[in-house]
Structure formats: structure tokens, C-alpha cells
Amino acid sequence: MKIEKLYYFESAARQKSFTKAASECLVAQPAISHSIKSLESELGFDVFVRDKKNISLTPQGEVFYNDVVKILDKYDKAVEKARDFSNYINKKIIIGLYGFSATIPMVPILKEFKQNFPEIELIFKRCHNTSCFESIYSGECDIIISYCCPDEFAYDDIYFKPLSEDSLLLAVPPESNLADKEYISTRDLLNADRNMHILDTYENHIRSFVSIPYEKLKIETDVELLHFSGFLNRDIIFTTQSEMDFFHESDYIIKEIKNISSKAIHGIFYKKNNLNPLVHEFVNTL
Asked: Which domains does the chain have, with CATH numbers?
């Protein structure tokens, strides 16, 4: 029995829908249906009661589901531990980047670490903030370098080590109705004449101060795409001074935001129980 069948079954049972399971598992809906039928054939009993609109677990399916959840949890943890240990054996640390510009403040630190530990390979891969915790949990990344707002890293099993902080500012094109403002108030944000682009990292923090209409707030999951999309459309961008210095969009005007506690904290996320000692060695050098 392939492990994918158990993942498909667990998702379908939890969501009571083959369609939702297909979306979550990133496969076509017929693949879920075929997998469940194959699973039932192997088991020798039906796990679902099907009607035109809904699915529900059979009594046998309920018993099976309860144990499958435990099995998948143990399997995921086993894979996670093995990947951590494999990275240690192979003397490597996998670092996820939330856009290249997010690494700029880290360059001197990374260079110094490499000089002190030349035998350790630093492997970089791109990731989005919306999936960075999944990347850490799965072992795809040991560390994530990213920005976040002060209230965005309350997780029991993931540590966040702040390294620096920057003020969250507004980059405004000169043709905007906000360009002549000395500073930007929450009322000004509501009355802006164009769309605003913001990293998903900052969205909840900003919305706690001002209810910008959803159709006007364009959520980006990548630092470079944030600025590229904002600049190309001549829109307003929530950004930091260091990011603006990096992208050199000279005709944009930087504005402070009034009445919003807006700090973008730059740092690293890493798993509390990572079994790769090199990760903790890296963190301790920061």
C-alpha cells in the first residue's frame, strides 16, 4: 500500500469531500476517487458512504481513520528526523529565502560563518512566507530568513531569532494623491487613489489598525514580486527603507505611516527540536 493513499484518505475523511481533498493534496479529483477505490479494494471493505453531494465514513472507516491519523503523524515525524540527521551527516544547512533582498542584511554573517566553518555547505532555496513553516516542519529547510511583524511569530515549536528591525514605510508614486502628504494617516490609506501592495507577512498587522478594502490591498508572497508588481502598476507599496535602497526606484517617495505601530523585524525561523546540530551552531554564531 502506497503512503499517498493514506494521505488522500485522511484528507477526504477530514474534509468530507473528495474535491477539497484533491485541492489540498494538489491532485485532480479523479485521482482521489481512484485512490480511495483502490484502498477499499485492498482493505476488503468500504471506508466511505457516498451520495450525490456528500461522503461520510462507514463504521469500519471510522476505526481505520483514527489509526491512520496516528500512523501519518508518526511517519511525518520519522521523515522529519531522518532529514535533519541526513543534513548533519552530509554537513549541510538548507536555508530558505523569502526573496533575495531579505538576505542582504545577512550577507556579512553568512560570510563569517562560512569562513569559520568552511566544511559546512550552505544550500539556499526560495520559499514563500505562507509556506515557510511547512518547509521547516517537513525538513525541506532548516532555517528561513524573513521579515515579520512583532505579532506574527507566536509558535511553540518554532523559534524566531530577531537580528535587526526596520520601520515599515509607504512607497508612493509622485502622481498619487498621497505624494504631497507630510506623513500618511490611516484615513489617508482609506482614501488612497490606487491599490496598495503588501507582503502577506504584514497583512494581519496592518489590518489590526485599518480596514483597507480587500479589493484595494494586493497581497504578495515574495519580496521581489511585491516591488516589481507595485512599481509596474504605479501603485503604493508597504515596504522598508532597506528594501527601497536595494530596488533603487528613485521616483517613488518614502512616507512615514502615522498611528500604526509598524516595525518589520528581520531574522530567522528555525525548528525547536531540529536534530541537525549544525543548525544550532549556526544560530549561536548570530
From this structure: 3-75 (1.10.10.10), 87-163+266-284 (3.40.190.10), 164-263 (3.40.190.10)
Three-state SS for the chain is CCHHHHHHHHHHHHHCCHHHHHHHHCCCHHHHHHHHHHHHHHHCCCCEEECCCCEEECHHHHHHHHHHHHHHHHHHHHHHHHHHHHHHHCCEEEEEECCHHHHHHHHHHHHHHHHHCCCCEEEEEECCHHHHHHHHHHCCCCEEEEEECCCCCCCCCEEEEEEEEEEEEEEECCCCCCCCCCCECHHHHHCCCCCEEEEHHHHHHHHCCCCCCCCCEEEECCHHHHHHHHHHCCCEEEEEHHHHHHHCCCCCEEECECCCCCEEEEEEEEECCCCCHHHHHHHHCC
The pLDDT score that the predictor gives to residue 127 is 73
Q: pLDDT tens-digit profile of 66-109?
A: 999 999 988 887 887 777 666 666 788 888 887 666 666 677 88
Task: Give pTM, 2 decimals.
Answer: 0.58
Confidence at residue 49, expressed as pLDDT on a 0 to 100 scale = 94
